[in-house]
Specification:
- This protein is an alpha/beta fold.
- It folds into two domains: 123 residues, Enolase-like, N-terminal domain (Enolase-like, domain 1, 2-Layer Sandwich), CATH 3.30.390.10; 243 residues, TIM Barrel.
- 39% of the residues lie in helices and 15% in strands.
- The protein is built from 15 helices and 13 strands.
- Strand 5, helix 7 and strand 6 form a beta-alpha-beta unit.
- The longest helix is centred in the first third of the chain and has 21 residues.
- The chain is globular, with a radius of gyration of 20 Å.
Length: 393
């Protein structure tokens, strides 16, 4: 089998808001075609125009080869060998950043092709069992442009997640710091109030996590708030400080009463080695599209397993990434949860409409079907509806 063509779809919701802390408003969907008619699907969570050009860019010398040019004619049944070829051939241009994100979408599609060709789910190809249930947590980003509106929206979404049968939920309490939602800049007291109110409303049995989106300027400031949140019995607090402050993360590991999670922005397993060993992160959060695809994500799982850590994949895009996360989780014992943006609670139409078929949550669990590959089907009408050719359209 040979790769014959790569289709790149830049998608954008028409009413996107640049002040929102949500990358679910755009997408790059990659379709890899083969000479046997099998088509693999992938996506990545970064600026879709930049990732598209990373794939399209022409080769100009042996240290800066183009991804699309290297892919044409390659055997998609060897995704790991292709990953190494793409990484090595583009190393001066890539190594990290958007090019690795582009490779992540490609790698996801290649594993989808391999699974379809062999009649096998990706989770089995990765070494797991597709019948192992996966526990999704409902990822809850509220609406609201005041602290009160934000709190009330998040409480309502938490209660809705309970009604939908979720056993765990993550509160996106992004109300201060550099990446606050809707331009909010509230006090740490507001963060504490929101989390306590959500815990009170949800009761003691719902597993709760909190994402503060790099809110605090340093580890000691973060620790002061984390100690106040300890009575809320949180599974983790995500991205409390700048991702590059590895010493600060290590300090929090040593002193925080709540486990620390991070890794949504990391590219390649090499960055997770630093995060795990120097930063001492308790919960590693590879985004399968950003980290470089399944080929790199499974290495992150190995890193976590060898150190007694946990993996909880980041996923804030569409059902494509959710399916990928579910297959990864089903293949490893160190992944207790995956991030899941419920269709019923999603503002983005890309999350609601992009797939015609995707894994379903039943009684708080996802049990993958025996469908080969990723087991997903694109909604072609949605693909056409939200496709844009450039920034001017």
């Amino acid at each position: 089998m040979k790769i014959t063509r790569i289709d790149l779809h830049v998608l954008l919701v028409p009413d996107y808001d640049v002040s929102a802390c949500s990358s679910a408003q755009d997408d790059l969907v990659v379709e890899v075609h083969t000479d046997e008619g099998i088509v693999g699907i992938g996506e990545t969570d970064t600026n879709p125009w930049i990732a598209r050009e990373c794939i399209r860019a022409r080769s100009t010398h042996c240290m800066g080869l183009g991804l699309e040019e290297m892919l044409r004619g390659a055997d998609p049944m060897e995704p790991e060998a292709i990953w190494e070829q793409l990484y090595r051939g583009s190393k001066m241009t890539g190594r990290r950043g958007a090019l690795i994100c582009a490779m992540g979408a490609i790698d996801m599609a290649l594993w989808d092709i391999k699974g379809q060709a062999l009649g096998t789910p990706v989770s089995i190809l990765l070494g797991g069992t597709q019948r192992r249930p996966v526990t999704p947590y409902a990822s809850l980003l509220p609406t609201g442009r005041t602290a009160g509106e934000y709190r009330d929206s998040l409480v309502a979404k938490t209660l809705k997640a309970l009604d939908l049968g979720f056993r765990a939920a993550k509160l996106e309490v992004c109300v201060n710091g550099p990446y606050s939602h809707n331009g909010l800049q509230e006090s740490d007291e507001t963060i504490v109030e929101i989390v306590f109110e959500c815990r009170r409303s949800a009761g003691p049995d719902l597993v709760l996590m909190v994402d503060v989106a790099y809110a605090w300027p340093d580890a000691r400031t973060a620790l002061g708030v984390l100690k106040r949140l300890a009575p809320c019995d949180l599974f983790f607090v995500e991205t409390p400080i700048d991702i590059d402050d590895l010493e600060g993360h290590a300090y929090l590991h040593d002193h925080s009463p709540i486990p620390i999670a991070a890794g949504e922005w990391q590219n390649t397993h090499f960055e997770f080695l630093d995060l795990a060993d120097r930063g001492k992160i308790d919960v590693l959060q590879p985004d399968i599209g950003r980290v470089g695809g399944f080929t790199e994500a499974r290495k992150v799982c190995d890193i976590a397993a060898a150190r007694g850590r946990r993996v909880v994949p980041h996923c804030w895009k569409s059902g494509i990434g959710i399916a990928a996360s579910a297959h990864l989780a089903a293949s490893t014992e160190c992944c207790p949860y995956i991030e899941f943006l419920p269709v019923e609670l999603a503002e983005s139409p890309l999350r609601r409409e992009l797939l015609a078929e995707e894994p379903r949550v039943v009684n708080g669990l996802i049990t993958l079907s025996e469908a080969p590959g990723l087991g997903i089907v694109l909604n072609r009408d949605a693909l056409e509806k939200y496709r844009v050719d450039d920034r001017g359209t």
